[in-house]
Amino acid sequence: MIDVQRLRVLTEVARHGSFSKAAAALLFTPSAVSQQIAALERTVGTDVVVRSARGVTLTEAGRLLVEAGETISAELRHTEAELARLATGVDTLTIATFGTGGRYLLPGALARLAAEHPEVEITVMEREPEHSLPLVRSGAADLALVYEFDRPLPLDRLTLLPVMDDPLSVVLRRDHPLASRKSLPLKDIADQRWVFGCSKTAAFLHRHAEDAGISLRVSANTTDYFFAQALVEAGVGIALIPLVALRKTPSLMAVPVERPRPTRRIGVAVAERVRSRPPVATLIDALRSAT
């Protein structure tokens, strides 16, 4: 029989790409991690990792075992939570969310959740989608508010329920020569000085510029759309900002990008095993009704 603890060790090795980093995360010695992996390989009768000077990667068998380990871990977390609820009468709900979506959508939805399920203790964690999805898969979070932009998310055994489209606009100072336009094609503004508010929108603009044979002029790189808009307001450049992060200020204008308009698709990622829980169902309905 496959040992659940050894699956946990393999999952940490896969996450960190090395025995030593996995050992640090697990509070083991690297030797103990190596022994656990060797014992797992003896049990399944095949290699589960490939060792090299660059680190450790999974074999096909290793990938199957990590998927199984994540599923088992999530089921155990879910069972532990249910047992705790039965023992104490206290229910819990953990939500992972990206910052701008959480700011725009969560307060109203959480107010409804609190009104309908006052017994539920709520925990909110701010995470980008690439970090929140593993939390939902492992059971460390019950659901995640996420977005897709420019490419699909790797859902891997999760369901994505659509919440809203989040189109991006060009934000300029009101006195900018282009601020009076009804819409703007990206090709007309590619030569402007840019303020980036997110690495993903920066990557999108760089790809668009490369396709057009243009080199972007970048004034500022930030990871905060609100900081980026403050820099636009100061005259540093222009920015590409999603709807949920737009600041309402008289000194700025948000001009839609012409079609095909870049758009983030916001949704709720959830595992089917928890989707029917009353607090989860209530929160999902509140999020999907908020727009």
TrEMBL record:
InterPro entries: LysR_HTH_N, LysR_subst-bd, WH-like_DNA-bd_sf, WH_DNA-bd_sf. It comes from the Bacteria. Keywords: DNA-binding, Transcription, Transcription regulation. Belongs to the LysR transcriptional regulatory family. The keyword Transcription regulation applies. Residues 2-59 form the HTH lysR-type domain. It comes from Allokutzneria albata (Kibdelosporangium albatum). This is DNA-binding transcriptional regulator, LysR family. Pfam families: HTH_1, LysR_substrate.
